Amino acid sequence: MAQWDEQFSKLKQIIEMMKDHNLAEITIKQGEEELCVKKAQPVQPQFTAVPMFGAGMPGMMPGVAAPAAGQGQEAAPQEAKPAEIKSPLVGTFYAQPSPDSEPFVELGSRVEPETVVCVIEAMKVMNEIKAEMSGVIVDVVTASGSAVEYGQVLFKVRPD
Amino acid sequence: MFSRVLIANRGEIALRVIRACHELGIEAVAVFSEADRGAAYLDMADEAICIGPAVPAESYLNIPRIMSAAEVSNVDAIHPGYGFLAENENFAQICRECGIIFIGPPPEAMRLLGDKVEARKLAKKVGVDLVPGSDGVVEDVEQGLKIAGEIGYPVMIKAVAGGGGRGMRVAHNDMSFRSGFASARAEALAAFGEGAVYLEKLIIEPRHVEVQVMADGSGNVLHFYERDCSIQRRHQKMIEESPCPVISEKVRQELCASAIRIIKQANYVNAATVEFLLDKDRHFYFIEVNTRIQVEHPVSEMVTGRDLIKMQLQVAAGENLELTQKDIKHRGVAIECRINAEDPANNFSPCPGTITRYIPPGGPGVRVDTHVYQGWTVSPSYDSMLCKLIAYQPTRDEAIATMKRALSEFVIEPIKTTIPASLSILSHNLFVKSKIDTEFVERNF
């Protein structure tokens, strides 16, 4: 039992050390014994060479919605970067269910994963877009009625 | 003429279509996946819309996303390029239903000629010789064995819905027929969603010769002569040339006339390529029709002095080709080398990565069709073709010399490319004498 407690406390120390130094993997060999601890990684795109992207990225695609004027990032520098709700479709973004209704969400609105934040119309079909996260809306990035592309940032959310 | 066209493709063919659009005063809308974000050719389009993540099923093959992009960008027509949705009759049909013009054949003609069994029936009907074969789908292995016995071994088992060399097996006897039949069907089902197969006699030392055809909406069907595409590896073309160096003018005329008969019979409109096998006695046999513009179209453009992509746009916009066959003359020799990000020394395995040094060739007789530039990152998500290098000169020997010079000048580093392999082939005595067939590369390299 004592041996198990000792092992477990060593493991805890190793895990703390990994967190402190943001390590993904550590292997410790002592004689015949080997311990390997791996942190679960989010799925990353694979690049097989040094990503030396040339000459910068081209700017905004013309003709597609620019961020709504007057909106800025409100998250304080010390806080975690706000999460983004991105468009999963190509289509037209609508902030409210119908022209004379209130918008689905506004600055300061609380959202849960199932909260409908907007509608994107694609090929005459109105698709309800859910927040898929919990938090508070800190930025409404896209103007209602504008065309959006896949991956375009619609809202910024301060996650819980 | 259209005012705006969306290009449902990527890479070099997207750029090719953007260029043709701009010369005709048409605005070009490009679509791209996350893997192609930042590509310089997208800046050449008038608008670029991200349609999804890297995986083709969610971007370049995703019909709803492409149609949405067409809708929000307000285009008149869609050019499908080659590959992806170019031969998808469902996509062509959906474009029609959405009131957007598909730059290619009508869905009915695409369906008819895209079905290899139906295309063979049609070719036979207009008096074009077929490779002896099963005249239809082979339902089971026992039926297949019987037909193979009648045709005579060796036979090729081919997928009805196939393309790109997949869903094909060769059988030299009953035993290899049994195993080949099962695996061809399985591969076809996995690759194309349709497991039906048919049989063809395997021609010995065949050359692959194809005819470029363009048909307009008024029934005017023109050919732009033939291309010899015998330099292939695993059914992927590596080098294409026009004219075919080994056929007489008489055979050329018959070959091109046969292609026209087939295209006319199908009520086909827009660009198509009719493929044949040529045997050692210079008899030709119909294989299939590609109902799209092809990778190697520049070869035919150089020897006839025509722009096939512009013609596609014009025909799709309802304009008639103001040309007769007499106006289309064949002049000089053009050779095209496909340059892929593959390592010839390592079984042509793909080499994705970032190109840190890129110096393309130039000078007289050189054409470079590419979307690639210094700093470009080759993605593992798509095919490995980087560039099409075309040499054009009055004679074949001069075209070969220009191509060798251009290949030697071409710098693409640090990734491995097929440039050394192309150089080896062009220097090979048998290639120079054109004593080649479709197995030449695999036999000698």
Task: Describe what you observe in this structure.
The complex is a heterodimer of chains A (160) and B (445). Chain A is built from one helix and ten strands, in the order αββββββββββ. Chain A is of the alpha+beta class and 160 residues long. In chain A, a hairpin with a 2-residue loop joins β6 (116-122) and β7 (125-130). Chain A starts with a helix and ends with a strand. Chain A has two domains: 2-38, no CATH class; 83-159, RNA polymerase II/Efflux pump adaptor protein, barrel-sandwich hybrid domain (OB fold (Dihydrolipoamide Acetyltransferase, E2P)), CATH 2.40.50. In chain A, the strands form three sheets. Chain A has a four-stranded antiparallel β-sheet, with no helix packed on it. In chain B, β4 (77-79), α4 (89-97) and β5 form a beta-alpha-beta unit. The radius of gyration of chain B is 21 Å and the shape is globular. Chain B has 445 residues and is α+β, with helices and mostly antiparallel strands. The mean pLDDT of chain B is 96. Chain B folds into three domains: 4-103, 3-Layer(aba) Sandwich (Rossmann fold), CATH 3.40.50.20; 132-201, Dna Ligase, domain 1 (2-Layer Sandwich); 207-444, ATP-grasp fold, B domain (D-amino Acid Aminotransferase, Chain A, domain 1), CATH 3.30.470.20. The longest helix of chain B is centred in the middle third of the chain and has 19 residues, at 174-192. In chain B, the strands form six sheets. Chain B has an eight-stranded antiparallel β-sheet with strand order 13-12-9-10-11-14-21-19, sandwiched between helices. In chain B, α4 (89-97) packs antiparallel against α5 (107-114). The A-B interface holds A 45-55, 57-58, 61-64, 89-92, 122-123, 147-152 and B 34, 37-38, 40, 42-43, 46-54, 59, 64-65, 67-69, 71-73, 98, 352-354, 356, 373-377, 380, 414-415.
